[in-house]
Amino acid sequence: MELNNFYQTATVCGTVINLDLDTLSFCVQSRSSDTFDTYVGSTTYYEVLTNIDGLWRDRVAEPDGLNRVAIDEGIGRLCDLLEDELDALQASTRQAER
């Protein structure tokens, strides 16, 4: 049986310990040392833990050996993929409306 329209929601609190731009994924390690691999897709949503007052003053330390250029390239690739998916969705919606 094929799973269609399957989704899962989880709240994980921890530290990002690995970022892989080739697979568009990252790994979060919790205080209990459990690790959670997350693969970013067109519907993935994640955010940094916010302050209790709700103001966006979050400060996240830059990881050692951070390659900002590689991250920017990965984000650019992700944006290109999302734009392509949106274009395809809009085209199929227009075709379905005919």
Layout of strands and helices, then pairs:
Blueprint: E1 15-20, E2 25-29, E3 35-39, H1 68-97
Antiparallel strand pairs: 1-2, 2-3
Please tell me about this protein's structure.
With 98 residues, the chain is of the alpha+beta class. The protein has one domain. It is 31% helix and 16% strand. The chain contains 1 helix and 3 strands, in the order E-E-E-H. The protein is extended and about 50 Å long. The two termini are 32 Å apart. The model has no long low-confidence stretch (mean pLDDT 79).
Radius of gyration equals 17 Å
| Main sheet summary | 3 strands, antiparallel
Strand order of the largest sheet: 1-2-3
Give the N-terminus to C-terminus distance in angstroms: 32 Å
Number of domains: 1
Overall helicity: 25-40%
Shape: extended
Q: Mean pLDDT, nearest integer?
A: 79
Computed structural class: alpha+beta
Fraction of residues in β-strands = 15-25%
**Which ranges are low-confidence, i.e. pLDDT below 50, for 5 or more consecutive residues?**
none
Q: Total number of β-strand segments?
A: 3
What is the count of DSSP helices, taking H or I runs of 4+ residues?
A: 1
H-E order:
EEEH
Task: Using brief descriptors, characterize the structure shown.
31% helix; 1 helix; extended; alpha+beta; three-stranded antiparallel β-sheet; 98 residues; 16% strand
Brief characterization of the structure:
This protein is an alpha+beta fold and 98 residues long. It contains 1 helix and 3 strands; from the N terminus they run E-E-E-H. The longest helix is centred in the C-terminal third of the chain and has 30 residues, at 68-97.
